[in-house]
Write a structure and sequence with these properties.
The protein is mainly alpha-helical. The protein folds into 2 domains: 342 residues, no CATH class; 165 residues, Tetratricopeptide repeat domain (Serine Threonine Protein Phosphatase 5, Tetratricopeptide repeat, Alpha Horseshoe). 70% of the residues lie in helices and 0% in strands. It is built from 29 helices and no strands. Helix 5 runs antiparallel to helix 6, helix 13 crosses helix 14 and helix 26 runs antiparallel to helix 27. The chain is elongated, with a radius of gyration of 30 Å.
């Protein structure tokens, strides 16, 4: 058999292995999606998805560009396409994501084969098929799957013989990545730099010209959004205007390295940008532009860097450590938490904590590998480093580091492949060194750096059950939270459910627990007042509402409810006085209507009392 025949046979065998890996990857993802249908999140995803869903429906109605781009636009367009083809059934976007996730084994194999060798590439593809975080996020309705696949395919197109078409398509795909994560602009420049300085020449193009053609593809995709901002708002916004506040969230005095709420700013998409803009507008005394808002929050972070350089440096080191940490920091969703409810997620498949030490060791092995083409191997290195920088500039979450996954798997595959070669060749000294590196990697990766809590997961699950009308299941989630922590928020929602179920004694206890920890909580004061009213404990309700009106003098709901209570207690003058105190308050149409009805009722009652009093006088 000739060498050429043997190569063809090997290539055919590897193609069959890749197809099997694709099939296994797709099967695992489909099992996960089918199991996930039992979750309250399946048909009622939270937070980010509410924005994506709203924008997708606007796009279907012909509003191609948003009246105010407050969030990254890639995923809403993807959802709009899914809705147009399959309807509003949320199973089908997940089905396509499962297909996309399974397809990832092919570009991972191609790049690893280009940068290292076939054995490393096959191991990396196998790890890709069996990597649990990839499986998990392919079932979550977020841009993670698209971001990872488009980035990897974009790089695969420049890993090998270049053509103008491949360069352009690669740039277009990278542009789509930026529509999901604008901070990955640094990644696009890293790829362009590698093309310009390390890739083989493209026929008919100089290397710098090839890099420019690649960047032209990026610009073609991103420019419509940038131009829209320029035309509509007369200002430069690259993709979306939330970069400044996100930068501040990850870089200020109290920053922890992962996401944290900022006082006065919502954690829901869209509203977060509006709140950050409102704060800046109030400081300026006029409506702030998106550029001013971004500059304000970035300026606050830069001020922190300038005034506390040591603290800033420690924060960046912490974010770097979090990036390489085994713990999957959750956002709206969390792999570790959801593993409680779905058996597929408990399978002993590969996770970050097992892959990262091998990836780090593989990185360290590259300079010492003499047979390796360092120019080619530098491609996944550039990608990993640039993705890591793009993440830690802001803050670290498990899903934010997912685009680093393909490159980690490649380095892990290279580490395993090289270790096998060293074992076969009896290079035991080298293997001892590799073992030491792996031990150090595991020690660093498994450091306990964060407080690992599942309370947010239970709370998000409770809210999802409430949205679906599954009140018993929601109460179980809230009770689980309270077994671990006396959370005022959990007590409040529990009290609300109990009040809806007419369990007034339980509801009273729950709202009192809120007020023990948050004395002036408006919603708890109002709900507890209504509990007292329904229990006909009018005097207790009166005292509570009068206190609420004093503490929350700018609200209309408390005086209105107090007026209604005074009417029940036949204290008409007090009721009229309570409503008169609303003069100057901003009220909704519904509140204004309630006030008008109460004023007519009080007037009619007082007129009747006056008539009766007059009749009594006439009789006397």
């Amino acid at each position: 058999m000739t060498d050429q025949s043997r190569d063809k046979k090997k290539l055919s065998a590897q193609s069959i292995v890749l197809l099997w890996l694709f099939f296994i990857a797709f099967l695992l993802r489909m099992i996960w999606i089918i199991q996930y249908q039992a979750s309250p999140f399946f048909d009622n995803p939270s937070l980010d998805f509410t924005f994506f869903d709203q924008r997708a429906k606007e796009i279907l109605n012909g509003q191609w560009f948003s009246s105010d781009y407050l969030f990254n636009p890639l995923y809403p367009y993807f959802l709009a396409i899914m809705y147009a083809i399959f309807g509003m059934d949320l199973f089908f976007p997940r089905l396509i994501q499962a297909l996309f996730g399974a397809l990832l084994v092919f570009p991972v194999y191609h790049i690893a084969n280009y940068a290292f060798n076939r054995r490393s590439a096959l191991i990396a593809a196998g790890l890709c098929a069996l990597y649990m975080p990839l499986i998990y996020y392919d079932g979550i309705l977020m841009a993670t799957t698209l971001q990872v696949l488009f980035l990897t395919v974009s790089v695969a197109l420049v890993a090998g013989k270049l053509t103008r078409m491949r360069l352009l398509i690669s740039g277009l795909l990278m542009g789509l990545v930026l529509l999901a994560a604008p901070n990955y602009l640094i990644v696009s420049f890293a790829v362009a730099g590698w093309i310009a300085f390390f890739q083989h020449k493209c026929p008919g193009l100089k290397t710098v010209s090839a890099a420019i053609l690649y960047l032209a593809g990026v610009i073609i995709v991103v420019s419509p959004i940038t131009v829209y901002h320029a035309v509509r708002n007369n200002e430069f916004v690259f993709v979306a205007p939330h970069g400044g506040i996100n930068f501040y969230i990850g870089n200020h005095e109290q920053a922890t390295g992962s996401y944290m709420m900022v006082t006065g700013i919502s954690n829901s998409p869209g509203q977060q940008t509006r709140d950050s803009k409102k704060i800046v507008s109030e400081k300026l005394g006029r409506p702030a532009t998106n550029r001013e808002v971004s500059a304000f929050w970035v300026g606050k972070s830069l001020e922190f860097m300038k005034n506390n350089p040591v603290a800033f440096a420690k924060l960046q080191i912490r974010k770097l450590a979090l990036f390489w940490n085994a713990y999957e920091i959750p956002s709206e969703y969390g792999l570790d938490f959801d593993s409680r409810f779905h058996s597929i997620l408990r399978l002993p498949l590969f996770r970050f904590g097992w892959i990262a030490p091998f990836a780090l060791t593989g990185l360290l092995m590259i300079p010492a590998k003499k047979q390796l083409d360092k120019r080619k191997a530098l491609l996944p290195v550039c990608l990993l480093v640039s993705v890591m920088i793009a993440v830690i500039i802001f803050f670290v979450h498990a899903r934010y580091r997912m685009p680093a996954t393909p490159w980690l798997l490649m380095f892990a595959g290279f580490c395993v492949s090289s270790s096998v070669s060293h074992i076969k060749q009896n290079h035991w000294k080298t293997m001892i060194l590799i073992a030491v590196c792996l031990a150090a990697g595991f020690s660093l990766t498994w450091l306990d750096l964060t407080e690992q809590t599942d309370l947010p997961g239970w709370f998000n699950r409770a809210l999802a059950h409430i949205a679906l009308g599954q009140m018993d299941e929601a109460e179980e989630c809230l009770q689980e939270i309270l077994r671990q922590d006396s959370s005022p928020k959990a007590w409040f929602y529990l009290g609300t459910l109990q009040m809806m179920d007419d369990r007034l004694e339980d509801a009273e206890f729950s709202f009192q627990n809120v007020l023990v920890q948050d004395t002036d909580n408006f919603e708890a004061l109002m709900n507890l007042s209504q509990v007292y009213i329904r229990k006909e404990q009018y005097e207790a309700a009166r005292r509570l509402l009068e206190r609420t009106v004093r503490v929350h003098s700018d609200t209309a709901d408390a005086p209105i409810l107090l007026a209604e209570l005074y009417i029940r207690m036949d204290m008409m003058d007090n009721a009229l006085s309570a409503l008169e105190n609303l003069d100057g308050h901003t009220m909704t149409t519904a509140q204004r209507y309630r006030v008008d009805v109460l004023e007519r009722q009080i007037k009619a009652t007082l007129d009747t009392l006056n008539e009766n009093a007059q009749k009594q006088e006439d009789l006397l």
